[in-house]
Specification:
- It contains twelve helices and twelve strands.
- The protein is an alpha/beta fold and about 300 residues long.
- It folds into two domains: about 110 residues, 3-Layer(aba) Sandwich (Rossmann fold); about 180 residues, NAD(P)-binding Rossmann-like Domain (Rossmann fold), CATH 3.40.50.
- Strand 7, helix 8 and strand 8 form a beta-alpha-beta unit.
- The protein starts with a strand and ends in a 12-residue tail after the last helix.
- InterPro entries: D-2-hydroxyacid_DH, D-isomer_2_OHA_DH_cat_dom, D-isomer_DH_CS, D-isomer_DH_CS1, D-isomer_DH_NAD-bd, NAD(P)-bd_dom_sf, PGDH.
- Pathway: Amino-acid biosynthesis.
């Protein structure tokens, strides 16, 4: 069996794969290069950089499994894989803590103007008055998407003595109650929150979830955090709201187009940006790589995969 690793993954996952299969690591391939290469492999392992399009899948005549070493699968044409009898697996639990901690870190960065103060002081200017912050204690955190990551954020926010409310149409009232989180409508969440953090999957129904209409409902003191997927927020509408001081600030880890080296969001001083770092910890990457490596081997052995996302 042959496995192509098209994006960098942890050595721990590579070692597991090499114990059972022949492994080639070819990262940074262009779409046409993947198409010309994939035909020799039974398994393809990617993170978020490589786009596994219908054309790539069609060229993978031997493919049995596509493994995403992480959570989101919007870079994989799952429908085409299913149609061609190819299993798609991921590692849904791997980056939960890392993504939750990054969201909390960005919340603090917004509350205390940390990146801006760092930049000004390093430019040789001692300026305290400009960077008056706020405490998070006693503030209302609105969580959009109360799945694994959203729930982990809720627990940490409660430890900071924040009031936590959430909107998620797929979560039961009992689940939220056990987390000591109040489920509310999206409209109420937007109106009442001092901080809003988004942890929803990107689907056709959630694309553009936060746009001009939604931003018209928020407090002018609100701060918005997105460590989920870029397409969930209308970036132009957000930049405009911050520029017009209808939103106090935002912290964005994900973008509608990635890699993002230019963005309207970069133009606003009160928008903090990071290059999709939510899952970028050594711990998260090790777990993700090991999880998908074990599943690839299970598929090769004819056993069920633990985290299959389709049923070909």
């Amino acid at each position: 069996m042959k496995v192509l690793i098209a994006d960098p993954i942890s050595e721990e996952g590579i070692d597991i794969l090499r114990s059972y299969a022949e492994v080639d690591i070819k990262t940074g391939l262009k779409p046409e290069e993947i198409i010309s290469t994939i035909g020799d492999y039974e398994a393809l392992v990617v993170r978020s950089q490589t786009k596994v399009s219908a054309e790539v899948i069609e060229a993978g005549k031997k493919l049995r499994v596509i493994a995403r070493a992480g959570v989101g699968i919007d870079n994989i044409d799952v429908e085409e894989a299913t149609r061609r009898g190819i299993l798609v697996v991921n590692a849904p639990n791997a980056n939960t803590i890392s993504a939750a901690e990054h969201a909390i870190a960005l919340m603090f960065a917004l509350a205390r103007h940390i990146p801006q103060a760092n930049a000004v002081l390093k430019s040789g200017v001692w300026q305290r008055g400009k960077f008056m912050g706020i405490e998070v204690r006693g503030k209302t955190l609105g969580i959009i998407g109360l799945g694994r990551v959203g729930s982990a954020v809720a627990k940490r926010a409660q430890g900071l003595e924040m009031k936590v409310i959430a909107h998620d149409p797929y979560i039961t009232a009992d689940y939220a109650r056990n987390l000591q989180v109040e489920l509310v409508s999206l409209e109420r969440l937007l109106k009442e929150s001092d901080f809003i953090t988004i942890h929803s999957a990107l689907t056709p129904s959630t694309k553009g979830l936060i746009g001009a209409k939604e931003l018209a409902l928020v407090k002018p003191t609100v701060r918005i955090i997105n460590c989920a997927r870029g397409g969930l927020i209308d970036e132009e509408a957000l930049a405009k709201a911050v520029r017009e001081k209808r939103v106090a600030g935002a912290a964005i880890d994900v973008f509608s187009t990635e890699p993002a080296t230019k963005s309207i969001l970069f133009e606003e001083d009160n928008i903090i940006v990071t290059p999709h770092l939510g899952a970028s910890t050594t711990e998260a990457q090790a777990v993700a790589a090991k999880d998908v490596a074990k599943q690839v081997i299970d598929v090769f052995k004819g056993q069920p995969a633990r985290y299959a996302v389709n049923a070909p």
